[in-house]
Input
Amino acid sequence: MGVNSNGGFDALMRKLATGSYASAYVVGEELIGANGDGENIRSALETLNFLVVQDTRMTETAKRAHVVLPSVHFGEKEGSYTNRSGRVQKLNAAVIPPGDALQDSEIFLRLLQAGGETLNYSTPREIFAALARRGCCV
Output
């Protein structure tokens, strides 16, 4: 949320390629092939002190991560997502996820709780309602 196709993503990739970050947390993006500047992005990722990738598959970006968090694929997700155009769309899981893969929301909630956050929600529906109250998604 907050990075979109109106310049946010490209600006972020330029900052990454120029070494502006010491660490990164990448969710569901193959950065190396994202903008035609794969060699610079690959080099930038290798200079990071800490890289976390949360994805459904072992991408070239994930292969460079210090930590990979397995998440569920689009057809296994429940909840909603906001695309790069800012459009919010609901998701209903069509199949059961494999192995240790978790919903993105569950990964985020576990990380927040491990960091000491007290949360008033635990399901995708409750998260969406909290975002809507803050005017983030609707």
